[in-house]
Every structure is written in structure tokens, then in C-alpha cells.
Amino acid sequence: MAKKFDWDRVGLDFGNWEEEKIWALDLPVVEMDIADLIWHFDAPFWPSDHGERWAITPWDVIHEKEGTLNEQKNMEHADLKYPIDILQNKDRWLILDGIHRLAKSYKLGYSKVNVRMIPREKLSEIIVSDSIELP
């Protein structure tokens, strides 16, 4: 599971955000191809069942690998009625909220998901600190 990952590719270079502040944004919902977001499945965003931080990827969870039971349950309980919140960063769309929903949608065979595209000028409304503690 825990393999070396290049976090610079992800683009978490603008600080840490608060999900509740994202949810409060009044943004339109649009449909997007899952293929445009699938790159997230390579990043170890989630902790293992043993508490190791940044240890498992959405692919690990989708394929039900050992040590992913907690995240499998989170994915199973993800409510697809809520859109995925994304931000354009480093020339691609970055998910700020909704990776479990994306993984569940993929596992269910969907080709499209509902998203809300957060404009960069809204960052000041959702950022709560200047940095994210990455491995």
C-alpha cells in the first residue's frame, strides 16, 4: 500500500480549506466525465485501518485491498446526491470535497458525475491555513 507518491503533482499548494465553507458557496452544478477526475485514484489520500496516514488510494479501496475496510465503508455510505467540489489547479481539476463520492460513482459504473467548479477568486472564502501537512 504505502508507496512513494509525488505530492507536488496533486497541487495542494494553496493551503488547507474547510469543507463547511465550500458547501456554503452558491455555485451551479454541472456534469463532468469521471475520466477528467480519475487521476485522484493514484494518490494515497486516506489512512489505513491501522491508522497510518496518507496510506491508501481510492484504487486500493475500490479493489477492496487489505487495510481499507474503514474507507470502503465511507465510500459505501457516500451520498451521491451531493456534487463533487473541484478547483482548477496546476492545469487540471482538483477535488476539494467528494473523493469518496467519485470512487463510489466509478465503482457503480457511472461515466459522469455532478460537480461544482470553485472559482479561484473564492479561495479566500474557504482557506483556513496556509499549508497542508503532507508526508
UniProtKB/TrEMBL annotation:
<protein>
    <submittedName>
        <fullName>Uncharacterized protein</fullName>
    </submittedName>
</protein>
<dbReference type="InterPro" id="IPR036086">
    <property type="entry name" value="ParB/Sulfiredoxin_sf"/>
</dbReference>
